[in-house]
């Protein structure tokens, strides 16, 4: 596999190419979290760390981030969503070393991440667990139960990232079951909650490098669903509509290493 680290712009374009070729939706929620995933894989995750994609419908962004660090090839990505693929629309149960758990049913990824973080601490593995959730996913009671457990056990090796793009499958989060503003909901728990711009890699990296040392950390990422595609930005349709060929745009400039 190629070991060259790709720029975030190149990764975003590759994500668009994958979705265009496959003709599938869920692009909006992939574009809102791609900056965070690329930052994690290029700048943060160590050998002992683990990542869980709780919002499993953003699997395309995960695969593109893995491609950006040489853990998947172009040939792999070309099979996205194809029959018999190892890269389905949600992270698979088997076949990818970097996928710890199959996810897609919302509200399940964080409980799994909490259990894994506790197990890693009990084993003194030294690793950390990063879990990316959606904001609408916090309407699930299982999320708050998991957070209470993580808070009680002071799992400082757990970092929860919330892709707060304010849209979900049936409308705006504020209209379906309002959690806005999201940050105050974390106040009753013993966690460090920080709100940052989810499209600024340097902010994301700085926040992750400043995790709490005595409790879990929650990073609320202010993002835009469908970021970068005018027809899809901040629109419910971006949850479902596939990309049009005329929206792909010209090729990006030559690769540059992501700082």
Description:
By secondary structure, this protein is of the alpha/beta class. The protein has a single domain, classed as Rossmann fold (3-Layer(aba) Sandwich). It is built from nine helices and seven strands, in the order H-H-H-E-H-H-H-E-H-E-E-E-H-E-H-E. A five-stranded parallel beta sheet has the order 1-2-3-7-6, sandwiched between helices. It is globular and about 50 Å long. The two termini are 21 Å apart.
Q: What are the SSEs and their pairings?
A:
Elements lengths: L7 H15 L4 H5 L2 H11 L5 E4 L5 H10 L5 H5 L30 H14 L6 E6 L6 H12 L5 E7 L2 E2 L2 E2 H5 L14 E6 L3 H8 L8 E6 L37
Parallel strand pairs: 1-2, 2-3, 3-7, 6-7
Antiparallel strand pairs: 4-5
Helix pairs in contact: 1-4, 3-4, 3-9, 6-7
Fill in the CATH topology.
Answer: Rossmann fold
Shape: globular
Number of domains: 1
By secondary-structure content and strand pairing, the structural class works out as: alpha/beta
Mean pLDDT: 92
Name of the level-1 CATH class: Alpha Beta
Unreliable runs, pLDDT <50, ≥5 residues? 252-259
Quickly give the CATH architecture. 3-Layer(aba) Sandwich
Query: DSSP strand (E) fraction?
Result: 5-15%
Q: Count the helices. How many?
A: 9
**Total beta strand runs:** 7
Task: Give a brief description.
With 259 residues, the chain is α/β, with parallel strands linked by helices. It has helices at 8-22, 27-31, 34-44, 59-68, 74-78, 109-122, 141-152, 173-177, 201-208, and strands at 50-53, 129-134, 158-164, 167-168, 171-172, 192-197, 217-222. The strands form two sheets. It has a five-stranded parallel β-sheet, sandwiched between helices. A two-stranded antiparallel sheet has the order 4-5.
